[in-house]
Amino acid sequence: MDLLTSIGAIDTSDVEAFMKFWFTGTGAILGLVLAAEILIRLFSWIGDRNTPGRKRLISKDAPANFVLALHAFIIEGAVGLAAEGGAAYAGASISHWHIPFNGYTIIFYFLAAEFYHYIYHRLGHEVRILWADHSIHHSSRDYEFFTSWRLTPGTWIYKVATIMPIAMLGFGPVGLLLMAKSISFQTFIHTQRIGRLGWFDQVFCSPANHSIHHACNARYIDKNYGGGTMIWDQFFGTFILPGEEKIKFGITRDVGSHNPFKIWSFEFGHLIRDAWHAPTLKDKLVVLFGRPGETYSFKPKAPTADDLSDLEPGLVAAE
Amino acid sequence: MDHNALNLAYSVILAFTFLTTLHFSVTGQVESPNPVIRIFTNRNWFYPLIIAGPYMLGAFYFGAISPWPPEAFEAARAKAGLWAGVATALAAATADIWLFWATATVFRRFAPPSEQRFVKYYYLANLAVGIYLMARFSHLIDLGAAPVRQH
């Protein structure tokens, strides 16, 4: 199968060969780029050995990112992939339509997979209980290749809820999942080495526009959800390009720790505390399913004079 | 549109991609100050690489296309005609340049001033990776994948 007959072909076997080559090649490029990044850092680190305050070889967050990647891979492998695939299969099974996966329809599969990514990703940002999970990915103050490995344990839950209705439109589970997995190559764009890329930034997911997505500056929050392209962001009005403002990476409420368990439990802790203290059942539900930053937020009361009178005089003075 | 016309179109596009890659590799600049050369070497000609770059690497890996452009040309021409051969050879040659040299140029272009003194190592690393992969694709080093198919 040569390049041209593959691209020009319309039957499924050619599309499969094309996908096999393309995914293998992209995986190889990803590996090479990561290797290059590590080598460059190593050269700089060794070269700067006599420079005071030299940059760290790996960021303080990197070990936690590796632990979080490992735990997410285990969960994805154990239940996530099966649940996502099962939901796609169930959706396609009960659908009245079936869209074949071939050279003519591959673009529709790609757009459907992009839409799938856009929706579940946006849910992860805009529903607080899901944000407690997804914020793990965003909580690093760095933005580099290894930040993309700061994966979360529960993404598969909202993936399942999103993929089923899309599969019900007639998209076959294999084609849809294959296209959706192209998001795995997003590691490439988690870098500050590459600057603006002209019109590419307007259409495709790029280092510049994805860096905005990881920023916690007020004007950049909840923007640029796209996985491979910016098509759905442009369509739904969530697209933005970097401005003059310096990008501040991370989340508005900083975790302030490199301990993976603390990173993992940080927003869940705030969520449980706020839901527990919310005064009414409605408030509790809004805490769980409302938009982050707009729900009830528990503020510990300042101690009263009566509270302080119980303390020993020396301690009060210390306060 | 028949395949021959489609292959001719691919050949034209990939010829520009090849020229832009070559120009970038030699000069380190995407767009030339010379207006005539600028027509043939424009950053937009890199975009076919999103599809063709990974595809060629995968095809090299599985032995479907030879990384040696004349061999890639012969195989594709025999199967799908002259323009299929031209396009495949151009895509193979472009992928080869990236494997050996052009990738380091990208890193050089975006390297901060503090890293400029390490640029020569980027090229050494790129060359080493390219030589390793070529040896791998040609089965001088065999890690168990299928050999390059004899057409």
How many domains make up the 3D coordinates of chain A? 2
Strand content of chain A: under 5%
What is the CA-CA span between the terminal residues of chain B?
26 Å
Tell how many strands the DSSP assignment of chain A holds: 0
Radius of gyration of chain A: 23 Å
Kindly name the structural category of chain B. mainly alpha
Rounded to the nearest angstrom, the radius of gyration of chain B is 16 Å
Which descriptor suits the 3D outline of chain B? flat
Residues in β-strands, percent of chain B: under 5%
Distance between the termini of chain A: 77 Å
Share of helix of chain B, binned: 55-70%
- Write the H/E string of chain B, N to C: HHHHHH
Largest interface: A-B, 35 and 44 residues
Question: Shape of chain A, please?
Answer: globular
Note the run of SSEs of chain A as H and E.
HHHHHHHHHHHHHH
User: Helix count of chain B, per DSSP?
Assistant: 6
Topology:
The complex is a heterodimer of chains A (319) and B (151).
Chain A (H helix, E strand, L loop, with lengths): L2 H6 L3 H36 L14 H32 L12 H21 L1 H11 L16 H13 L5 H8 L19 H4 L3 H7 L17 H6 L23 H18 L3 H9 L15 H5 L3 H6 L1
Chain B lengths: L2 H25 L7 H6 L8 H13 L7 H12 L1 H29 L8 H19 L14
Helix pairs in contact in B: 1-5, 3-5, 4-5, 5-6
Short account of what is shown:
By secondary structure, chain A is mainly α. Chain A has helices at residues 3-8, 12-47, 62-93, 106-126, 128-138, 155-167, 173-180, 200-203, 207-213, 231-236, 260-277, 281-289, 305-309, 313-318.
